[in-house]
């Protein structure tokens, strides 16, 4: 968890005036005509044209070739007023075909304006080309042009509105795939917050957005992740968060308000309450609100999957640790020997360059390494004095007994545990048991567990001995480097002694 | 798994000619005018009008009120040719407002046709009403009408195309939420197949669709789920499936072909190959293909989550069973006592009306019921003869020892196991130990485990006794009904003896 400071006040970034959701707050109208006069007259005729309080920006092209380049630069053009005859007799029609087929732009509305109707017979053109209006230049009065442009921009707006919804959904789907693939709750929070912010992010650079993920505590909230907070003079009191949190609990998980997103997700396994809050700093459109609802729903499903998986994995670890420990010590006193060995092994595996996945596998399997001791009689296992050769031979069998208990399973954790049980008494120089394996004939998991197990045994009290002082234990490891233990692992162990000792402090007997 | 027959030939339903994806294969054009002559002339003028090989169907309304009713009936109307002055001076404009605001239809294109321009000044109307074209009746020549209708239908088509994509995405999102919530792989297959079929389902009733989910086997496929197969004379040989399966393996998981969907999903935990195949019987549109790719990707993510969860749960069960068994028998001989007790308990829980979730919890926790025996010396635990009172007192402590080993965990399974460990020697009449609880003072899990444990102990060989014949075991349960055991549970046990005995056969010692 990134930050654990208690939150008293939440600071938001500076407020800036919200932009229109439309690309740059204006409608782009491209005039394509080889006659400069037509350009001038068109602008003059339309004058200070606005549609829905948004002005028009005119783009000018004087040939089909120029128009192509201009459209590449402005793919968000709303309307093209298109002449037919330019550098060739049907340069305009060729450009119209290019727009739909090659530039793949099905949004821009094309109004064909022809001066010589004979060149482009109306019926043929309107049928064969994917254009949206056909006008004779002669009859294009101010009023007609006004109507044509208004209808075209309106159509463009309708198309863009649905398209924005479609794109938003596509983003939600990508977001969801990412969310459902998140490996941990922490990763998930970072991702989910990012996707909520993105859904409500407007095209312009200056839209204010602030968000956080918090864990509900007795007194208030503990912030786990935050974006854009504490960077401005603006404050939102914790009271507002608490109010929304309570509303989210009462009305259902996801609240999408005019400018805010708030949701509460409850982990029933751990009785933890998680709270998402985002303040967008501008009113959300209906489309955005709909998308946020869908995204919120997906977050809920993905999170409850993740909570469940984390619970199962945590339970599995506890089962293995608890049963491994009681088998090891054969008593109800559940000390922390197998837990420490598991944690030491994890650290050694990571430092030895194993992947986190393999290191976790080792940590999960390692507590079962002594399960074979179940087959050794009390009288030998708990004998206070020195063992006879026969008794020691019996003790040694705990490796093969453990292996035979665990090896039958097809599960990866169990198979791994079987290998560890069999090999954790092998020595680097071949002097170990049961098989006298040499060097890396012993699996890396076996070598790691061997070192971790001996370190813990020596540095703690046992029925037959007192704990050794740390320096004596370390001397022992150095002495046995390259003989009993993998020399590379002993080096790693000594280099990372701080982490090892921290584990011993965290899980004392 | 629904059917396990080997598949030699796959039969598909009859082929029928595919319909156009558009709603009913025609464009609906509504003429709204109080003058019957206008209706007649419009139809006459447009004649046998087609757009993209699809004909027009004319709908007729003679007033604003009629138009509202007609639109309710035909919300998929493409174009409205709208008169202004009808039952009132601006009945047409009122209807236009109704279409957008009340009927919430932003798809239908509205062409206003006015006979008295003074009644509806063009600039004001085009600005204030969400209409798409403004025409004077006087100037509506055949060519003009043709152009206006073509442009309007084209706009409608563009809007519908994006909207269909958007709706498809929305369905994929709903599908994904359902898929990610699936509790088991089987449920998942049914759902996933349904959603793939739905994505490619055309509006008409007669589109052919056939699908299956299969498990790859050495020889070919084992069908797990199928839809619409084996109901027609048409055959697709297994060879085609094998070909696509190999292609899916080679090129990536999801193949979307002209008329087919094929995907392979590999469970790396179990080395199982799952294969989805759907034949749609008509060419898929680009939108549909895109949606199927997205859906396929989501299926992959959801399925790999599910595989992982199933693996973790299975591993957890094995860990608990294996360790529970070795603690119970204190030997490397992993017999099946705790496994049988777990399975008997599951059956009894279900038959006693507990939810599947609770029954599974009991099954998972039950193998740990005797974990406290770890604290009992060999000499007492394995004593062949009769125990002294003191020795029996020590044996009895395995309940509280087990409880104290397990109770420290916050995990549900461990807490449940702690309760079972403590209570599985209590009697219905209060004569049990350690606390002499009466009737339902003992938790239902404790009562169930008590019965299952004694049944298994009596009907199998133990170190201190031979197995009893079945009839003697059942006589014992009947005799102890309402004394040692919950009478209700004994009844359930006897009523479901077949299932109980099947478990004993499945897991022998």
UniProtKB/TrEMBL annotation, chains A, B:
Domain Response regulatory: 28-152
Keyword Plastid among UniProt keywords: no
CDD domains to which the protein is assigned, alphabetical: HDc
Entry-linked InterPro entries: CheY-like_superfamily, Cyclic_di-GMP/3'3'-cGAMP_PDE, DUF3369, HD/PDEase_dom, HD_GYP_dom, Sig_transdc_resp-reg_receiver
Keyword GTP-binding: no
Modified-residue entries (4-aspartylphosphate), positions: 83
Gene3D superfamilies: 3.40.50.2300, Hypothetical protein af1432 (1.10.3210.10)
Signal peptide limits: none
Keywords: Phosphoprotein
Domain annotation HD-GYP: ranges: 312-509
Protein name, per record: Response regulator RpfG family c-di-GMP phosphodiesterase
Taxonomic source organism: Desulfomicrobium macestii
UniProt lineage: Bacteria, Pseudomonadati, Thermodesulfobacteriota, Desulfovibrionia, Desulfovibrionales
């Amino acid at each position: 968890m990134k930050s654990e400071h208690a939150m008293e006040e939440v600071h938001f970034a500076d407020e800036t005036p919200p932009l229109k959701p439309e690309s740059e707050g204006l409608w782009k109208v491209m005039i394509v005509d080889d006659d400069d006069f037509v350009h001038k007259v068109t602008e003059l005729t339309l004058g200070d044209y606005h549609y829905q309080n948004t002005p028009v920006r005119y783009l000018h092209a004087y040939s089909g070739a120029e128009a192509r380049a201009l459209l590449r630069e402005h793919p968000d053009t709303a309307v093209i007023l298109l002449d037919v005859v330019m550098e060739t007799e049907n340069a305009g029609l060729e450009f119209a075909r290019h727009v739909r087929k090659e530039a793949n732009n099905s949004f821009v509305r094309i109004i064909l304006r022809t001066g010589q109707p004979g060149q482009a017979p109306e019926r043929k053109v309107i049928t064969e080309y994917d254009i949206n209006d056909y006008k004779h230049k002669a009859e294009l009065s101010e009023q007609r042009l006004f109507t044509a442009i208004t209808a075209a921009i309106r159509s463009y707006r309708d198309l863009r509105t649905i398209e924005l919804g479609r794109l938003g959904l596509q983003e939600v789907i990508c977001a969801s795939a990412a969310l459902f693939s998140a490996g941990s709750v922490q990763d998930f929070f970072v991702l989910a917050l990012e996707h909520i912010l993105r859904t409500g992010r407007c095209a312009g650079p200056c839209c204010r957005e602030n968000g956080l993920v918090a864990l509900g505590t007795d007194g208030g909230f503990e912030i786990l992740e935050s974006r854009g907070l504490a960077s401005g003079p603006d404050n939102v009191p914790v009271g507002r968060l608490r109010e929304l949190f309570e509303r989210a609990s009462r009305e259902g998980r996801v609240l999408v308000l005019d400018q805010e997103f708030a949701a509460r997700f409850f982990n029933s396994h751990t009785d933890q309450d998680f709270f998402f809050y985002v303040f967008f700093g501008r009113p959300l459109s209906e489309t955005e609100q709909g998308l946020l609802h869908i995204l919120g729903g997906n977050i809920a499903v993905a999170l409850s999957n993740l909570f469940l998986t984390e619970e199962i994995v945590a339970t599995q670890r506890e089962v293995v640790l608890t049963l491994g420990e009681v088998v090891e010590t054969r008593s109800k006193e559940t000390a922390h020997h197998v837990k420490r060995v598991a944690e030491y092994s994890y650290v050694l595996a990571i430092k030895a360059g194993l992947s986190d996945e393999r290191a976790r596998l080792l940590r999960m399997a390692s507590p079962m390494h002594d399960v074979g001791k179940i087959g050794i009689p009390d009288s030998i296992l708990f004998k206070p004095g020195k063992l006879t050769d026969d008794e020691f031979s019996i003790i040694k069998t705990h490796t093969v007994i453990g292996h035979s208990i665990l090896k039958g399973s097809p599960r990866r954790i169990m198979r791994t545990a079987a290998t560890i049980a069999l090999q954790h008494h092998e020595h680097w120089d071949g002097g170990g048991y049961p098989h006298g394996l040499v060097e890396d004939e012993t699996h890396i998991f076996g070598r790691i567990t061997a070192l971790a197990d001996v370190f813990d045994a020596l540095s703690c009290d046992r029925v037959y001995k007192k704990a050794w002082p740390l320096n004596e234990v370390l001397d022992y490891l150095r002495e046995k480097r390259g003989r009993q233990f993998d020399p590379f692992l002993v080096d790693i162990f000594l280099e990372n002694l701080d982490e090892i000792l921290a584990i011993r402090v965290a899980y004392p007997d």
